[in-house]
Write a structure and sequence with these properties.
elongated, 103 residues, 4 helices, mainly alpha, 70% helix
Length: 103
């Protein structure tokens, strides 16, 4: 059975992730930013739901797998509290996007 992906929620999470990635690591995460922007474009096409889901799953593989993937992203700061404060919401967005598309 095809999973019913909530495109509006996916769009919101992607927008938030792109802002964070551009703020903290625009060069280091340029590939992931590009792929997330591609996902945004796909969400606005007239493709069928099945085709959108297929493309989204392919793009999620590119974004989440391999060295330098989105799952490895974190912001370093000397201050432990500040580092946790920055990274917690980023981690939540990363896992929420995965859950929306894959689970």
């Amino acid at each position: 059975m095809q999973k019913d992906i909530k495109y509006t929620e996916v769009q919101h999470v992607i927008n938030s992730l792109i802002l964070v990635l551009k703020k903290y690591a625009s060069e280091r995460m340029s590939y992931q930013i590009n792929q997330l922007e591609l996902v945004e474009e796909i969400l606005h096409t007239e493709e069928s739901v099945q085709e959108k889901n297929r493309i989204l799953n392919t793009l999620m593989d590119r974004i989440y797998q391999g060295p330098g993937s989105l799952t490895e992203f974190y912001v370093f700061d000397e201050d432990d509290e500040k580092r946790a404060e920055i990274n917690k919401p980023i981690g939540e967005l990363i896992f929420k996007l995965w859950d929306l598309v894959r689970n």
